[in-house]
Amino acid sequence: MSITEHHPAPTAHAAPTPAELGIGARLSLHPMTDGFVPVILGALRAAARPEVEVVTDDVSTFVRGAEHHVVAYLLDAISAAAASGAHVVAHVHLSRGCPGEVACTVDDAILRRPVTLGPLPRSHHAASAHWALYPLDDGDADRRGDHMAGIFAAIEHARSLGVVTGSEHFVTRLDGDLADVLGAVAQGWLLVGQRVRHVVSHATISLGSPSASAAGAR
Amino acid sequence: MSITEHHPAPTAHAAPTPAELGIGARLSLHPMTDGFVPVILGALRAAARPEVEVVTDDVSTFVRGAEHHVVAYLLDAISAAAASGAHVVAHVHLSRGCPGEVACTVDDAILRRPVTLGPLPRSHHAASAHWALYPLDDGDADRRGDHMAGIFAAIEHARSLGVVTGSEHFVTRLDGDLADVLGAVAQGWLLVGQRVRHVVSHATISLGSPSASAAGAR
User: Are residues B167 and A137, on separate chains, in Cβ contact within 8 Å?
Assistant: First the structure.
């Protein structure tokens, strides 16, 4: 092979940005305490890093970046809020594939490439979550869609991680260290993203609930 | 036409139950105050009515019943929590079509029948929401799915109701009286339910936010 220093190698081509791929999250943090404002602002500040774009409004916080950076941000922000000692509920909304109301035009091979998350550091915060996953599978030229197939595959994957503790109406229940729960949610989302162009996941994650303490370990 | 009193009229046939149609909601209420427990429990108690089945666990509350009863329950519960004067965020998750992890077998003509909500009484609580709708449109024998078509139709409908105030990443912003915001979310969900067998909607609804007050009326 000839020397190619005058031409960029294929791997040096500019990869599509998270914005082009429609990758990101919305986070809402709900510390159930009179002093909720400093807990929320402190948590978002503690998680800030140059690799993610963060825009906070009065309802939720938008986070954009490569998948592993977004997940690391979410883990740090929720952990910091939980460290306040208050009962905290976080709502996490992950999306990939269709930025906003714009139709997707990105090539399948790029959009559906495998993405893996590195291991997440243990948070030492016990979390209980209600998790839902939406593979928006319209099918393709050769086949109808089958959104339930993606849901089942993601639940099986979460089960293999040991965090699935129940099947409730409309959601799957996950319990474990926050890192394991959030990891299962994100991995299920990425797993289905390999076969469906537009995948969204929602998780309501509860930490430090007095109801959970009263009920004992679940 | 002959007298038919010896045969039940078609309308007297047992209608499918909300459980059979997979219709219901999950609600999580987050009052940002040290006294959050009585606010949550009081709000759920204030909204209770015989027409809905309610199951509360440590993460969220499951509500099942006919659509208009479920929506009335949600409106009453969120209003009661907001009446505490605390900053309250509610997360509402509406679903119809696929009960839990079970595949849908209900006939299309029944599942996709038009359902209308009566007008909701004004709550006198200003609400700001981030709203997402997921028509899980796998297509049918004759066509591919097109989930974005349902989303666009529901947003247009909400716009006609005057509550759409912005288009954010992954969500549509709604502002207005809680009844109008919740009504637009539920009507969009039911509108799309007439063409897609499995439709889910999520809304993060904020009331009494100090950020919103600081930013002035939006």
Answer: no
Name the minimum distance, in Å, from the CA of A39 to any CA of chain B: 11
Q: Which two tokens stand for residue A181?
A: 């729960």
**Cβ atoms < 10 Å from Cβ of A140:** 12
DSSP B195: T
Rounded to a whole number of angstroms, the distance from the CA of B177 to the nearest CA of chain A is 16
pLDDT digits (tens, 9 = 90+) for A29-83: 999 999 999 999 999 999 999 999 999 999 999 999 999 999 999 999 999 999 9
- A142 close to B (CB below 8 A): no
Domains of chain A by start residue, with CATH? 17-213 (3.30.70.930)
For B131, which residue in chain A has the nearest alpha carbon? A59
Task: Kindly state whether B101 is in contact with chain A, defined as any CB-CB distance less than 8 angstroms.
Answer: yes
The interface pTM score, or ipTM, of the predicted complex is: 0.90
Is A117 in contact with A71 (CB distance < 8 Å)?
Answer: yes
Q: Does A81 touch chain B (CB under 8 A)?
A: no
pLDDT higher than threshold 50 for residue B38: yes
Q: Which residues contact B147 (CB under 8 A, 6 or more apart)?
A: A136, A138, A198, B134, B135, B136, B137, B196
* A69-114 pLDDT tens trace: 999 999 999 999 999 999 999 999 999 986 444 566 777 778 788 8
